[in-house]
Amino acid sequence: xxxxxxxxxxxxxxxxxxxxxxxxxxxxxxxxxxxxxxxxxxxxxxxxxxxxxxxxxxxxxxxxxxxxxxxxxxxxxxxxxxxxxxxxxxxxxxxxxxxxxxxxxxxxxxxxxxxxxxxxxxxxxxxxxxxxxxxxxxxxxxxxxxxxxxxxxxxxxxxxxxxxxxxxxxxxxxxxxxxx
Length: 180
Fold this sequence. Notes:
The chain is α+β, with helices and mostly antiparallel strands. It has helices at about 5, 10-20, 25-35, 40-50, 80-85, 90-115, 135-150, and strands at about 25, 55-65, 65-75. The relative contact order is 0.13.
């Protein structure tokens, strides 16, 4: 399975999210984190990610006669790099966007279905802001956003931290006017 096909699937996107922060998790842990995903489906997706080297086995132990594996995410294998993104067709981009949106909707519904979900207290936001930008302003904005994300990307789980999902989406909604 090629990298695009592997990573552009809503359930596998959610597994990658659930494994972030350097955590080690079992498939049972993932089932608890993704209660809307059938167990058989989750096991199959974990297996595909492990076979592709996106997940690696951290440890194994016997539990009730079966082997339980603890997995760790190899973040460098869980990305579509710039070269791969540049080689994607328009249909690949459509597929990738749809997979990302499906994962986002599922993650949001899982959040809302939790006991005690409180969007106001949790600073949930989903505003869309049209911005008029020239190429230089766009590049500067992207750099600022990437810098802000990079400064927190290596945060590890801690008692005072909870995992948040940030999904910056940026695309032009109108064509640039042509010079007359």
